[in-house]
Specification:
The protein is an alpha+beta fold and 230 residues long. It contains 7 helices and 7 strands. The protein has 2 domains: 67 residues; 138 residues, GAF domain (Beta-Lactamase, 2-Layer Sandwich), CATH 3.30.450.40. It has a 5-stranded mixed sheet with strand order 4-3-7-6-5. It has a two-stranded antiparallel sheet with strand order 1-2.
Length: 230
């Protein structure tokens, strides 16, 4: 198709959109229009319009149902976050707090491996809780600097060096993951052997809000330590 033909078609298309009653004013033109049907026989313009509107309505209904499902899923997610927040904040000590957090993350996200890294506090959690301490200025942490500065969760697949640092000998099995910054306190990393489990662009609101819960709980610890040292 030449550029001139395309230009004429664009002009006609634009004119008809701006003048939807044009064919009503020029009914004789209808007998010159040819509209083929997928099954073969020709159909009228009205039939084609009805067919198009029916397909359009079906697409809108599908989108509507998808939005309803997303809203329902988000409501369940927020309810679970509220429950988990109450459970976490009821933990009297930080080791119990991180034990519960670790269990909840692996369960809620059906993940295979987890890393919770703190920059300041050294906490002795349970044997099953992957809680680690690393200085923020550790040279190894420089590779995560861009992610930490974003201030929100990032999903996808990190390179092998980053995965080795986070998951050690099990890094080779991690096919997708999500990295969750926790302000100046640390970061969370959740890994899965499923390459489609955590993908770029997926919703991370739950994790970002949960990170706020963690940083709020850690902030409560600072005044207690100050009182003990006074």
């Amino acid at each position: 198709m030449s550029d001139s033909t395309r230009s004429v078609e664009d002009i006609v298309s634009k004119y008809l959109r701006q003048n939807p009653d044009f064919l009503e004013k020029q009914p004789a033109l209808l007998r010159h229009l040819e509209l083929s049907h997928a099954s073969g026989p020709a159909i009228s313009l009205i039939e084609r319009q009805v067919q198009y509107l029916r397909q359009h309505n079906e697409a809108l209904e599908q989108q509507h149902n998808q939005l309803i499902q997303v809203a329902a899923d988000n409501e369940k997610l927020m309810y679970r976050l509220h429950q988990l927040t109450l459970e976490l904040m009821s933990m009297g000590d930080l080791p119990s707090f991180f034990d519960l957090l670790s269990e909840a993350l692996l369960t809620e996200f059906k993940a295979d491996i987890l890393n919770i890294t703190l920059f300041e506090l050294k906490i002795e959690a349970g044997p099953k809780t992957p809680l680690f301490h690393t200085r923020r200025d550790d040279p190894e942490m420089q590779q995560f600097q861009d992610y930490l500065e974003k201030g929100h969760s990032v999903c996808g697949r990190l390179n092998r060096n980053k995965r080795d640092f986070l998951f050690g000998t099990r890094a080779q099995w991690v096919q997708s993951m999500v990295l969750v910054p926790m302000g100046t306190d640390g970061m969370l990393a959740i890994g899965s052997s499923d390459p489609a489990r955590f993908y770029p662009g997926m919703g991370t609101l739950f994790l970002d809000l949960l990170a706020d819960v963690v940083t709020s709980r850690l902030a409560l610890e600072a005044p207690q330590k100050q009182r003990k040292s006074a």
